[in-house]
């Protein structure tokens, strides 16, 4: 007679009971009068939601919905600045003074009225906290409160980019009284004395259509509707943004109905998303790109310092193949590192692959037999694919590329130390003005141009015009000319400009893609 | 009297050894993290802001990057003694606060995984030993093989695809339903918090969400526990004193419970201790797949971002966990096996 094994049986029964208990009915959320939108995305980049400290990507979307800026770029017209908190503005003849007239009667979610003093406080706090986004306000010399609804801003120099800068989320107008109540300050030593960051990470002090009520790092962000928003009541009651790192799982959540919106779908999953009758797929043109940079310093690379070699390299790359293989075709290319969608950029000017011309140029420069060069980059699966493709493309013209992958922070360090001869990386804009590219890729003592030892006075001259000229036609011409100079010198070539694949439940209405802050939740309804 | 003193002395000796072990750990990680060829400024200050000397100066001032290394280390140790683990370069919050935020999720998952591994692994291992060669032995071997060879990022995705997407039996990623509100934080352990708050719906939701990740994470431990219990028990069952006990006419169950299991349990206990510490720290893949906000992911990101304070803080926490778990295992040895007490 076999004895009963009591303990193992008891344990198994306990496990069974536990599972049965777990199969109890799922938690039902408390009913809300307006629909809740659940968005899934990778929000690992969020380190703070204080608009004067934040310098990542996700915060742009959050701040656009929780705060108001003086002006904005609407998704349907990205070339023109539209009024937001400021109804209208006047520019002095010398371009140094801007007078903004605020929309009357606007209130923060606290009930405090939005005044000129809040504008002054916000921009001064941004400046004096001296964190990453502080440079946005560099151009502001002084902010004067004329009266409650009138602000006079004096610039350090005339700049056609200023209004675009005012639209950036870092220049959001915060509730000065509330921020001060929580230890905030705009004093010159704010970087040492301001204490409001922790509170602003969990709460918004804005006038926007939504209120930030919770941020759990790497887990979720919760926004609740502001029923008193001055532009009208939001059509969503709540927005829950959940962190889901794995793209397959994120799509599954959409298909199961556990989520309504996914910001960026993997290109491999597009067909699956398109096949689902409950989902709609929207393709957005971003202003983000990956570019290849080549040094002009003969000590770092003698071949690359010759512009004919750089041109040859640019002509050897199979851009179409790269976009097709890596992005399944969801990508485009501009003639230079100034992306499509910006003033003066004409896709017809884009040069593709031309192996014959490339070989001829190499021969002319004396490198008919080719040469060896190291390619540096910050390693991740996408960049490894790009690197492998570049290596094989350039091998066809006799150039031997040695791949030198490194950790991203190491790559950035080396790059900033001007040590890299041949490298590639990404570029995303902070605000929607051509200077976002022309300033960083043209001046020998600044930005990427500096890192690659690129020095051409003509490029600098044109960049200066772009940075100071208010006449749109003159600006556009300068941009066209600068592109030609850059294509001739070829210190950089754009590999591709990305498209963003957005997926949402068919029930979601009103979506319009925005390349800076992705979506305005105020425009969405379910 | 003698036995109790032996155990107390043993515990005190172990506790005293903890301090130099911790200092050794911090010295090691501090040195390693400073030897890497990258400028810590690259993490704190953005590409575009690097051109602004004010911002760079403010950052250097704030993090003491201009001070000599030995001074930086001593500063760190002093803060440590006051419970301050420094401020993370990436999140700009105190590391202790970050760890306190992410630790409960990992603890909950690790405990659930361990319980699952024990609940299935122990009886399976015992049965496999007692019925050596039978179908249950083969089944145990198969289950263990699967657990040892399937990587969690694969099995996790497969499990989600099957049980969440296709069969719709279990919930998706996250600790709770995507539209539900997280319970008010008392301990950070959702099961405990919802139970204390009396919210049984949320308790069931949290438990439901815990099933898949703890099975996926715990499967490897299950395999270990099962195999080690089996082999250890088999060895013990071959011993002379077992034969004697049987010859005495004792019931098989008594032989098993009173004599065999107790002796066979020591290797299993060791495994469980190491496994728990491993579960606490190695859950990175599972945490990523199931959107579980734990310290595994935090640790990896800190390392990738060269976030020195976070790296040192997390390493210290992991070292403390290991030391603590080993201490408990050592004490339990003393409880189970009298011979160890007197050593």
Number of strands of chain A: 17
Uncertain runs of chain A: none
- In the predicted model, the low-confidence regions of chain B spanning at least 5 consecutive residues are none
Helix content estimate of chain B: over 70%
General shape of chain B: globular
Mean pLDDT of chain A: 91
The assigned structural class of chain B equals mainly alpha
Q: Characteristics of this structure?
A:
heterodimer; A: 526 residues; alpha+beta; 18 helices; globular; B: 343 residues; mainly alpha; 76% helix
Give a structural overview.
The complex is a heterodimer of chains A (526) and B (343). In chain A, 33% of the residues lie in helices and 22% in strands. In chain A, β2 (71-74) and β3 form a beta hairpin. The longest helix of chain A has 18 residues, at 472-489. Chain A is built from 18 helices and 17 strands. Chain A has helices at residues 6-22, 58-66, 116-129, 162-166, 176-181, 190-193, 197-202, 247-256, 270-275, 307-316, 319-327, 355-364, 381-395, 408-416, 435-442, 447-451, 457-468, 472-489; strands at residues 36-41, 71-74, 77-83, 86-91, 97-102, 140-147, 150-155, 210-216, 220-225, 238-243, 261-262, 279-294, 331-332, 371-378, 399-406, 422-427, 492-505. The model of chain A has no long low-confidence stretch (mean pLDDT 91). Chain A starts with 5 loop residues before the first helix and ends in a 21-residue tail after the last strand. By secondary structure, chain A is an alpha+beta fold. Chain A is globular and about 70 Å long. Chain B has 343 residues and is mainly α. Chain B has 15 helices and no strands. In chain B, α1 runs antiparallel to α14 (308-336), α7 packs across α9 (200-237) and α8 crosses α9 (200-237). Chain B starts with a helix and ends with a helix.
């Amino acid at each position: 007679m076999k004895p009963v094994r009591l303990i193992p049986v008891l344990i198994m029964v306990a496990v069974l009971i536990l599972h049965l208990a777990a199969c109890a009915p799922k938690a039902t959320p408390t009913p809300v009068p307006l629909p809740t939108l659940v968005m899934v995305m990778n929000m690992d980049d969020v380190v703070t939601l204080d608009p004067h400290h934040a310098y990542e990507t996700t915060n742009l979307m959050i701040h656009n919905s929780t705060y108001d800026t003086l002006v904005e770029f609407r998704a349907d017209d990205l070339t023109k600045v539209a009024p937001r908190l400021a109804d209208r503005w006047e520019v002095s003849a010398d371009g140094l003074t801007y007078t903004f007239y605020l929309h009357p009667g606007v209130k923060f979610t606290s009930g405090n009225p939005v005044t000129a003093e809040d504008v002054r406080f916000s921009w001064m706090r941004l400046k004096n906290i001296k964190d990453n986004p502080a440079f946005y306000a560099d151009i502001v010399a002084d902010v004067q409160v004329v009266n409650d609804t009138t602000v006079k801003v004096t610039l350090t120099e005339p700049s056609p980019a200023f209004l675009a800068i005012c639209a950036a989320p870092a220049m959001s107008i915060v509730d000065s009284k509330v921020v001060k109540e929580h230890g905030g300050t705009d004093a010159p030593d704010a970087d040492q004395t301001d204490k409001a960051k922790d509170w602003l990470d969990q709460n918004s002090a804005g006038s926007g259509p939504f209120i930030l009520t919770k941020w759990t790092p790497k887990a979720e962000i919760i926004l609740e509707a502001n029923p008193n928003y001055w532009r009208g009541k939001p059509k969503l009651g709540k927005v829950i943004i959940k962190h889901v790192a794995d793209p397959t799982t994120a799509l599954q959540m959409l298909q199961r109905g556990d989520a309504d919106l996914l910001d960026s779908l993997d290109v491999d999953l597009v067909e699956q998303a398109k096949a689902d009758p409950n989902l709609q797929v929207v393709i957005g043109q971003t202003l983000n790109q990956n570019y290849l940079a080549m040094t002009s310093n003969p000590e770092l690379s003698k071949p690359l310092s010759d512009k004919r070699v750089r041109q040859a390299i640019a002509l050897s790359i199979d851009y179409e193949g790269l976009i097709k293989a890596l992005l399944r075709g969801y990508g485009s290319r501009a003639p230079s590192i100034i992306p499509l969608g910006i003033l003066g950029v004409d896709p017809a000017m884009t040069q593709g692959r031309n192996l014959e011309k490339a070989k001829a140029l190499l021969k002319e420069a004396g490198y008919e037999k080719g040469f060896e060069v190291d390619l540096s980059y910050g390693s991740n699966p996408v960049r490894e694919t790009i690197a492998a493709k570049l290596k094989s493309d350039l091998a066809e013209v006799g150039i031997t590329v040695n791949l030198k992958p490194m950790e991203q922070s190491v790559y950035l360090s080396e790059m900033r130390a001007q040590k890299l001869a041949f490298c590639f990386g990404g570029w995303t804009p902070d605000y929607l003005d051509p200077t976002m590219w022309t300033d960083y890729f043209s001046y020998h003592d600044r930005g990427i141009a500096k890192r690659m030892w690129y020095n051409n006075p003509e490029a600098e001259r044109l960049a200066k015009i772009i940075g100071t000229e208010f006449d749109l036609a003159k600006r556009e011409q300068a941009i066209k000319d600068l592109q030609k100079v850059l294509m001739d010198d070829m210190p950089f070539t754009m590999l591709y400009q990305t498209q963003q694949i957005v997926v949402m439940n068919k029930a979601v209405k009103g979506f319009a893609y925005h390349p800076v802050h992705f979506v305005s939740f105020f425009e969405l309804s379910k | 009297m003698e036995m109790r003193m032996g155990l107390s002395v043993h515990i005190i000796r172990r506790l005293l050894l903890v301090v130099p072990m911790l200092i050794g750990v911090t010295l090691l990680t501090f040195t390693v993290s400073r030897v890497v060829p990258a400028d810590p400024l690259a993490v704190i200050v953005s590409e575009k802001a690097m051109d602004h000397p004010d911002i760079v100066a403010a950052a250097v001032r704030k993090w003491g990057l201009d001070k000599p290394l030995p001074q930086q280390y001593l500063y760190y140790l002093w803060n440590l003694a006051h419970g301050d683990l420094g401020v993370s370069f990436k999140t700009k919050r105190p590391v202790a606060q970050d760890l306190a935020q992410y630790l409960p999720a990992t603890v909950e998952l690790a405990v659930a995984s361990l319980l699952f591994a024990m609940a299935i692994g122990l009886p399976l291992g015992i049965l496999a030993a007692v019925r050596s060669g039978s179908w249950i032995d083969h089944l145990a071997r198969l289950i263990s093989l699967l657990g040892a060879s399937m990587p969690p990022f694969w099995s996790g995705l497969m499990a989600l695809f099957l049980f969440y997407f296709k069969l719709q039996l279990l919930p998706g990623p996250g600790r709770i339903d995507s539209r539900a509100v997280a319970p008010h934080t008392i301990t950070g352990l959702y099961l405990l918090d919802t139970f204390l708050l009396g919210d049984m719906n949320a308790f069931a939701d949290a438990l439901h969400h815990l099933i898949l990740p703890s099975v996926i994470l715990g499967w490897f431990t299950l395999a270990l526990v099962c195999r080690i219990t089996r082999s250890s028990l088999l060895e013990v069952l071959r011993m002379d004193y077992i034969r004697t006990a049987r010859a005495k006419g004792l019931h098989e169950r008594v032989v098993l419970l009173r004599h065999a299991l107790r002796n066979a349990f020591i290797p299993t206990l060791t495994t469980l201790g190491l496994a728990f510490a491993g579960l606490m720290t190695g859950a990175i893949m599972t945490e990523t797949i199931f959107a579980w906000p734990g310290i595994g992911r935090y640790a990896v990101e800190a390392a990738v971002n060269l976030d020195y304070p976070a790296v040192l803080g997390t390493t210290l926490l992991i070292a403390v966990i290991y030391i603590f778990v080993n201490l408990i295992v050592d004490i339990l040895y003393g409880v189970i096996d009298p011979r160890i007490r007197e050593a």
